[in-house]
Amino acid sequence: MIGAIDLSDSQTTKVAKARQQKKNTVRKITARIVMVAIGAIIMALGLELFLVPNHIMDGGIVGVSIITSHLLSLPLGIFIFVLNLPFIFLGYKQIGKTFALSTGLGITVLSVTTIFLHNLEPFTTDTLLATVFGGMILGIGVGIVIRYGGSLDGTEILAILFNRKSPFSVGEIIMFFNVLIFTIAGFVFTWEQAMYSIIAYYIAYKMIDIVIQGMEESKSVYIISDEIEEIGQTIMDRLGRGVTFLHGEGAYTGNDKKVIFTVITRLEESKLKTIVAEIDDHAFLAIGNIAEVKGGRFKKKDIH
Questions:
Q1: Is the same domain home to 225 and 205?
Q2: Which residue stretches of the chain are H helix?
Q3: CA-CA distance, 235 to 303, in Å (whole number)?
Q4: 127-179 pLDDT, tens digit each
Q5: 294/174 Cα distance (integer angstroms)
Q6: Domain total of the chain
Q7: Considering all CA atoms of the chain, what is the largest pairwise distance in Å, rounded to the nearest integer?
Q8: Is 299 part of any domain?
Q9: pLDDT computed for residue 155 by the predictor
Q10: Which residue range(s) make up the domain with 238?
Q11: Residues 64 and 190 in one domain
Q12: What are the pLDDT digits (tens) for 18-39?
């Protein structure tokens, strides 16, 4: 009887866990769909209300679409959708189903939204303002989509395929492709507009980094010192961050060393340097950027 009760409890627990996992999966899928759609709409606003009316380009397949739309006098959204279709299929084959579906959704929403916005008056006709704010809005939209597992341009997929059969990196292939597009834009529009386009592209690129990494960019920290216990305790007390002691060995001296490893935000970097310098101004300190932190106990504790 006891065994039967235990089995029943175990089955109930498994069912409860399965339901919770299903709810979490539904939430994640819903969040992905909503955020990819929002990101695509934001990018469309940047294109149709700032960049395109002022003949400022984006890079990649979207840039090719802008040139083609201008030459044939047809809505931009048509070419964004048609030219990206082959890359959605390639993304499905090379990267995965989830990526392809997210990308397909994003490109569809982007295409439809640009068609609806096509006949609206631009937000500004000042080329510099359009370049700066258009690039920022574009980067925010693209960053949101990338953060939630999709893409709004097939250039990266194309670069991955070329990378497998060439000595060039993915970044180098994308750069070459965009230089070619901006050069063509110089002939189609003007060289001045092509230069503004490069500025807009750079701004968008930096905004993508900010959106993906977040404003409070995380940093990994390694500290080697003879006062390691005191430094570790002070970091926990004054920063509220957990620390991990690692065991190392000096290659030259052969002496055992304790090493502190911790993760902080960009805003806490200055305070951490001050803490270490106050206790041991000869301590070795190495700080590096981290794109994302998950799990563990990264949550900040109460500080004294």
A1: no
A2: 2-46, 60-72, 76-94, 97-117, 127-147, 155-163, 170-188, 191-213, 228-238, 269-279
A3: 9
A4: 999 999 999 999 999 889 888 888 888 887 777 677 667 777 666 777 888 88
A5: 30
A6: 2
A7: 85
A8: no
A9: 80
A10: 218-290
A11: yes
A12: 676 767 678 888 888 999 999 9
